[in-house]
Design a protein that fits this description.
Elements lengths: L1 H9 L4 H47 L6 H34 L6 E4 H18 L3 E5 L6 E4 L1 H18 L5 E9 L8 E8 L21 H6 L6 H11 L3 E7 L3 E9 L3
Parallel strand pairs: 2-4
Antiparallel strand pairs: 1-3, 4-5, 5-7, 6-7
Helix pairs in contact: 1-2, 2-3, 3-7, 4-5, 5-7
The structure holds adenosine-5'-diphosphate.
Keywords: ATP-binding, Cell membrane, Kinase, Membrane, Nucleotide-binding, Phosphoprotein, Transferase, Two-component regulatory system
Catalytic activity: ATP + protein L-histidine = ADP + protein N-phospho-L-histidine
GO biological process, one term: cellular response to phosphate starvation
Length: 265
């Protein structure tokens, strides 16, 4: 592209080519910075549990060798750290799979209402454990979009799990699938919304929330077993389904995540 633009410049096509040329270079630099940041983040996220594992192995081989109680406690912590690394690698693989397929829109009609209802059933035990009530509203008749069912299940799982984890115990989470009639240049659409009544998200964080490894509160995300990749995966799944993701939040009032998809013809 750069070579082509340089040729345009040489051919005397003037200013616009030069402007494009500089924009291309800065885009390239931004991509390179993103790639380096990503590798640094992944390394850091893996190194922390690994350092902890290696510390506990030293303790188990040394001072805690003959302390049965300490051994049990340390082994539990080590198991949790290993699970954390597994979750991170699973999320990284999922993210790269979705990114690879991003420009190939799925072509199978999927009933979004039934898919959401299925995932909400799977999430019910976690909600019960956290004292969160789940309310589901889906139309009686099928609501079809062109989709990949596994990806859509993952999308619902990430949003509902976040609402349960960050929405606060004793509160409710409302999940809805609604048809939207044609409007403007757009045909019929289907909206999925997940709403919680937790502390919400301060407005300055909203624009960066779907970036990989971006968290509002890193310590809280760790406690909740988060990887920081959930919403990045959500964004790519919505994009691949030619949908749009909107996040609204009023601090203290909770957060609403909406994904709007074109309805299947
Ligand atoms: P994580 O694995 O940390 O949960 P996500 O990508 O799913 O990563 O979310 C990124 C961050 O966005 C979370 O760490 C949390 O700070 C914030 N967040 C996500 N969902 C909610 C929500 N429903 N309410 C408040 N904060 C949220």
């Amino acid at each position: 592209r750069i070579r082509r633009l340089a040729a345009r410049s040489e051919a005397g096509l003037g200013q616009p080519a030069a402007a494009l040329f500089f924009r291309d270079l800065s885009d390239q630099r931004r991509l390179e910075t993103m790639r380096v940041d990503f590798i640094a983040n992944v390394s850091h996220e893996l190194r922390t549990p690994l350092a902890s594992l290696s510390g506990f192995i030293d303790t188990l081989k040394g001072p805690a060798r003959d302390d049965a109680q300490a051994r049990e406690r340390f082994l539990d912590i080590m198991q949790a750290q290993a699970q954390r690394m597994t979750r991170l690698i699973d999320d990284l693989l999922q993210l790269s799979r979705v990114e690879l397929k991003e420009h190939v829109p799925p072509s199978t009609p999927v009933d979004l209402g039934a898919t959401v209802a299925h995932m909400v059933e799977i999430m019910a035990p976690l909600a019960r454990e956290r004292g969160v009530g789940l309310a589901l509203e889906v139309p009686q008749e099928p609501v079809r979009i062109l989709g990949d069912r596994d990806e859509l299940l993952r999308l619902v799982e990430n949003l509902v799990e976040n609402a349960i984890k960050y929405g606060g115990s004793g509160k409710s989470v409302e999940i809805a699938v609604r048809r939207q009639g044609p409007g403007g240049t757009q045909g019929e659409r289907v909206e999925l919304s997940v709403r919680d009544h937790g502390p919400g998200i301060p407005p300055e964080h909203l624009p960066r929330l779907t970036e990989r490894f971006y968290r509002v509160d890193v310590a809280e995300s760790r406690i909740q077993g988060g990887t920081g990749l959930g919403l990045a995966i959500v964004k790519h799944i919505v994009g691949r389904h030619r949908g749009r993701l909107a996040i609204e939040s009023e601090p203290g009032q909770g957060a609403t995540f909406r994904a709007l998809f074109p309805a299947a013809p």
